[in-house]
Amino acid sequence: MAQGIFGGSEVRTWLLATALSRFPEHEVTCIVFHHGQESRERVGQVMLVPHSFYRSPHLLPAAHEKQAHSSWLDRLWGRLEQSIAPLLPGNITINGHTISRDMSRVYDDVAADVYCVCGVSNFAAEVAAYCQRSHRKFVLLAASDVDFALDYRRGSKHVNPFGSRADLCHYVLMTADRILTQTDEQAAFVRTRFGRDAITMRNPIDLSSRILAAPAMSEQEKVALWIGKSDTVKQPDLMLRVAMAFSHIRFVVLMNRVDPGLFDYIAGNKPHNIDLIEQMPFPEVERLFTQAFVLVNTSRFEGFPNTFLQAGKYRVPVLSLQVDPDGFIARYECGIVAHGDMSRLMHGLAQLYTDANFRERCGNNIRTYVETHHRLEEKIDEFNQILSAIARCD
């Protein structure tokens, strides 16, 4: 098993891939980062193929080592390669950005009818360009509201919070054969900002899975849960402020190390009532929800977080600083939205901690919402129909 970080997009992709593979008309392959695994590996009915160009960081030399071995000749050769790259056979160029034959070879090897990518990014542009050249179908699955940013324009070299170029993101949105959004609000962004149609396909959650029985906990023993990455979008530093204000509540913070400096800051400044966990297998993450009385979200923006679905699965109310996809938290009373106000977030946590009836009502409401709108069996039927239809198109 690869020792890397994963988030909601990876969970969603694997859930869709494994469920789709049960349909006899589909052969499902996932192209994954290279972690040193064998060339191909079958897990259940899904084939995993490593992308040799994208290797796990632990397989690459450290930056200072690469710099130490770099000479003026290496740099000169690098500039020469960059200048002649668009002329080399098999390479693809988008807005001055070259996708080498080595980068796209794996897609030829897989030889799929339809290629699906989660999120608008430089990587998605690579797959979109390959599909355009090879006359194959490309389906974009939205991963975040930032996938539809206003500054995604042709010719723009602006870089989004995740390091992807705005002009390449624009290319992805304009060339995708289908755009599947997580929310109706995202679909409206696609129409009004990019003049394209989109299909809202809500994220799936498997409600039938079971975790190992956890020890029974009283309501007083349950924890406030925060799950995310150590980056400025998730704003984990705000969780420190919340925990410091509620020293009598135990907080569990599961935070993947993405920005090492921010991770170290959180680890070095956390109060005694925060248990910080860097990594955890997915089944154990599920167990955390059985121990929580609230899921706290401090992100600046999201798409539809998978953690919200997990919270619904285990009847855990959501306390969100400002993220409320399609307004479901407020509309169905699935928790509390603070609308960016930290004092309202603090007040909301106090209410959810002390008011057992309100907490139970919110927990039941979010479970009902998830059962009604996100059940895996219904979402995979919908996904199957979309992919089968596009595969039949000329």
Widest beta sheet: strand line-up: 12-11-10-13-14-15
Bin the strand percentage.
15-25%
Structural class: alpha/beta
Kindly identify the CATH topology of the largest domain.
Answer: Rossmann fold
Oligomer: single chain
CATH architecture of the largest domain: 3-Layer(aba) Sandwich
* Strand/helix succession: HEEEHHEEHEHEHEHEEHEHEHEHEHEHHH
Summed up, the domain count is 2
As a percent range, the share of helical residues equals 40-55%
- What is the rounded distance between the termini? 39 Å
CATH superfamily name of the largest domain?
A: Glycogen Phosphorylase B
Bulk shape? globular
CATH class of the largest domain: Alpha Beta
Q: Count every beta strand, where a strand is a DSSP E run of 2 or more residues.
A: 15
